[in-house]
Amino acid sequence: MITFRDKTYRCTSEIILSLVSGKWKISILNELANGPVRFNQLQRLLPEATQRMLTMQLRMLENDGLIIRKVYPVSPPKVEYGLSELGEQFAPMLTMLCDFGTTYIESYPDEVSYTSQKHA
Length: 120
Known about the structure:
By secondary structure, the protein is α+β, with helices and mostly antiparallel strands. It is built from five helices and five strands. The protein has helices at 12-20, 25-32, 39-45, 51-63, 85-106, and strands at 2-4, 7-9, 37-38, 67-72, 78-83. The strands form two sheets. It has a three-stranded antiparallel sheet with strand order 3-5-4.
């Protein structure tokens, strides 16, 4: 057993799953893997996410050290989000998850339909 941040886990993979669990976290990380993005750009990229939910998930990812929030001293304020060093290390695993997801759903062709793209 591992105790981390006052919670007990059976293995470290459970810790990682708890870091990225949340409706929009993986989608946010996938978008940031392409480079830094401003908040409004993220809202356009993830139109189903409410502003409140997006803000909350971004704060959680920042607190967990997976993303960096950079504020530029201009008026009006400009804020950019990008992957931290830890987030950059996690990016290849996101790609692997997407690839496995594609492989998995393709093994059930009668149960899948695509509305836009396969990868997040």
